[in-house]
Amino acid sequence: MTEQKDKPFDRRRLLTRTGKAAFSIAAASAVSYLAYDDKPPLPGSAAQKLVTLPDFSLPHLPGQTISIVEGPNRTKTVNKAIELLGGIKRFVQPGETVVIKPNIAFASSPILGATTHPQLVAEIVRLCLKTARAKRVYVIDNPINDPASGFMLSGISKAATAAGAKIVLPNNHLFRHTTLTGGRLIKNWPVFFAPLEKAHKLIGVAPVKDHHRSGASMTMKNWYGLLGGRRNIFHQDINTIIAELAMMVRPTLVILDGTEVMMTNGPTGGSLSDLRRADTLIASCDQVAADSFGSSFLNLNVSDLPYLAKAQKAGAGTTDYQSLKPKFAAVD
Amino acid sequence: MGSINRRTKPLESAISVLLLAILLFIGLAVFAKQFKYDMSRFGIEQAPAHYPSHRPQVVPNHELDLTSLNPENFQPLSKTEVYGHHNLYEKINGKASLYLDSGFTKLLTRRFISKDDENLWAELFVYDMAAPRNAFSVYTVQRRVDAVPLGIADPNYAYRTANALYFVNARYYIELVGSAESQPLLAAMVKISDNLRKRLPVNNLTDIADSTLFPPENIVPGSIKLYLTNAFGFQDLTDTFTAKYKLPNETVTAFISRQPDSLKAATVAQSYYNFLIENGGTTKQASNEALHGRIIDFYDTTEIIVPAGPFVAGIHEAQNQNSAEDLALTLLNRLNEAAKAKTDDRAKRQTVR
Question: Which residues in chain B have their CB less than 8 angstroms from residue A198's CB?
């Protein structure tokens, strides 16, 4: 300070200081420019760490693990089904972030039953936000068809956003690689992880559908929509991949919609005649139990769907849904 | 030029500290925000740079043009998309294997939407199955129970349901799936299919002529199916036509499987017979001598398997043995007549020469 005070501030000093300042700015800019990377980390790169999906499940309460409600109105049946399990506040706490995973595999009209019904998604969003006072709800899926078209034509983007949810379309930078411990197929495979990383609770919502490869598509098969990459290779061993998905994803709750069941020509369907009204909806903390009961909608036995036994053996749930003492009800 | 008093005043120091604090706060806020961004704003699909693109290609100049098919009150909702072997699953997922196992070569799709009602739209699927036989197979095995004749072609090759049209034309299998049950939409889909049929090859279906060998009496209209492989779960039962028959107390399935020659037909018939026995079937006495040793009781249903010239023919899962035997004999007579007619025709042509 003394030097500054004593020395005269002449033109030479001004130019010197200006030059130094300009050099500093140029150097900082050059370093920033050289270090700038406009691409997200590449999935599968050596630098990327494998992740493990959080366990979103809650402890089972005796007699409040699975509920089965008959009725033609999805809004009423889902409310009753969740109420029988203790209400939405048992599953979602105020301020939490909830991820809802519907089945939006195809860019098709909701009347075809190939995707989760938008009315059902909207009601679950409403329950989470209004009744349970969740902070935010994300609705996610990695559709087989073009994602934006799928969300739009299925009616889910409109219904979910109207109810207050945010839609998250798949993007590479939202995927991380995971390996399922004890798994045979899910090894270093990209999953739609980023929304789940931020979430406190996960709710799966799936329709009951005939499936050309697996026999049936229900809540466990619905997790297929969390996978990225060339996931169709898993169709070669469809029963194992569905069982592994049930091991990998531990949801808070699953909703299985049997209001209209796709009996034939699944999983795409296409004709209204592929559907049959069963007017039943299941809410369950045990996805294996839900799908085991759901197999009856397709006139199948549990033994007709080998992935159910595999998932039970792996500890993902029980095929003996009666042992969970399901709660039954009917609503108009 | 005199000296400068560089001693800072308290106010200047306070302002400097305040500015530095603001800059620090902004820096920390930016740092924190990057971990809490709104995913719904950034989750827009992008083509991955490091994976090969499996998204459908838009092919403007494909051999089969799907432009200008829509009636005046409809407009295209999407561009034509084309799928091949490698990415068919991206369009129809688990059903892809049905097509891939049946000679599939290409799928073209396009959506059309009403200009008056955004809820009325339809998607056109044109499957190129390489041969009419393949197209007929995927058409028949998916035939809906509530099929109604479409009126644009032979009812055996076209039908509609409440919201969709399905037909086979030459090597193409076509679906038009509507978003709703609506008369204006159905009319638009019929118009689109009419326009499309004008661009398709002539409907030459000679290679599914075996389907005409079923006796016409009591046949359930539109019930004929073609299984290219693995009919009734038996690997060697290839190129198998089946048809439903309405008998007095039940509906039964008759089948015809063409083999390369009569020797091969006899071998396959015996193999299928043995297959059923090995899987729990038991030999059943025939009331008609021609069917002796050809009838099996398979878990309280009757199976009949008979070689007839180059064909393996029979009855599948009948409840009543007598009715099944009657139908089997009618089928055998029909096949024998066809074989005789073919032999006579060949002899006539040789005589003419």
Answer: 39
Are B166 and B184 members of one domain? yes
| Residue pointed to by tokens 């120091």 | B13
Q: Does A213 touch chain B (CB under 8 A)?
A: yes
Residue from the list A153, A168, A271 with its beta carbon closest to the beta carbon of B43: A168
Q: Which of B172, B197, B222 is the last residue of a domain?
A: B197
Per cent of chain A over pLDDT 70 is 94
Q: Does A236 touch chain B (CB under 8 A)?
A: no
Within an 8 Å CB–CB cutoff, is residue A113 touching chain B? no
Residue pLDDT, tens place only, B203-230? 766 668 888 899 999 999 888 999 998 8
Q: Would the CA dihedral through A194, A198, A202, A205 be positive or negative?
A: negative
**Where residue B286 sits, what CATH number does that domain have?**
3.40.1000
Contact list in A for residue B162 (CB cut-off 8 A) is: 271-273
Query: Is B15 a member of any domain?
Result: no
Q: What is the distance between the alpha carbons of residues A53 and B265, in angstroms, rounded to a whole number? A: 56
Q: Which residues of B touch A154 (CB under 8 A)?
A: none
Q: Decide if B144 and A271 are in contact by the 8 Å CB cutoff.
A: yes
Residue B11 lies in a domain: no
Whether the CB of A169 is below 8 Å from some CB of chain B: the reply is yes
Phi, psi of A99 (to 5 degrees): -105, 130
As for how many domains chain B has, the answer is 2
- Res. A20: pLDDT tops 70: yes
Q: Which residue of B has its CA nearest to A8?
A: B3
Chain A residue numbers touching B96 (CB-CB < 8 A): 232, 235
Please write the tens of the pLDDT for every residue from B225-260: 999 988 998 988 999 999 999 988 889 999 999 999
Mean pLDDT, range A118-123, rounded to an integer: 98
Structure tokens at A181: 């411990």
Taking the CA of residue A221 as centre, how many other CA atoms within 13 Å lie in the half-sphere pointing to its CB? 37
pLDDT value for B353: 63
User: Cβ of B48 and A144 within 8 Å?
Assistant: no
A232 touches chain B (CB under 8 A): yes
Q: Is residue B243 part of a domain?
A: yes
Final residue of a structural domain among B197, B224, B259: B197
With CB atoms and an 8 Å threshold, state whether B89 touches A111.
Answer: no
Tell whether B168 and B212 lie within a shared domain: no
Whole-number mean pLDDT of chain A?
92
Where does the pLDDT of residue A8 fall: very low under 50, low under 70, confident under 90, or very high at 90 and above? Answer: low
Q: Please check the confidence at residue B111 and state whether its pLDDT lies above 90.
A: yes
User: B178 with B224, same domain?
Assistant: no
Q: Are residues B64 and B169 in the same domain?
A: yes
Cβ count near B172 (within 10 Å)? 24
Closest listed residue to residue B56, CA positions, set B77, B94, B76, B85: B85
Q: Are residues B217 and B321 in the same domain?
A: yes
ipTM above 0.90, yes or no: no
Q: Are residues B214 and B348 in the same domain?
A: yes
pLDDT for res B212? 87
Grade residue A239 by pLDDT with cuts at 50, 70 and 90: very high
Nearest to A141, CA basis, from A110, A102, A107, A177: A102
| Domain membership flag for residue B299 | yes
Could you tell me the pLDDT band of residue B63, with boundaries at 50, 70 and 90? low
Under the banding of pLDDT at 50, 70 and 90, the label for residue A5 is low
CB contacts of A1 in chain B (<8 Å) are: 6-7
DSSP string of A95-160? T-EEEEEE---S---GGGSSS--HHHHHHHHHIIIIIS--SEEEEE---SS-HHHHHHHTTHHHHH
- Domain range for B302: 207-352
Query: Does B230 lie in the same domain as B125?
Result: no
Q: Which residue of B has its CA nearest to A161?
A: B40
- In this structure, the answer to whether residues B236 and B316 fall within a common structural domain is yes
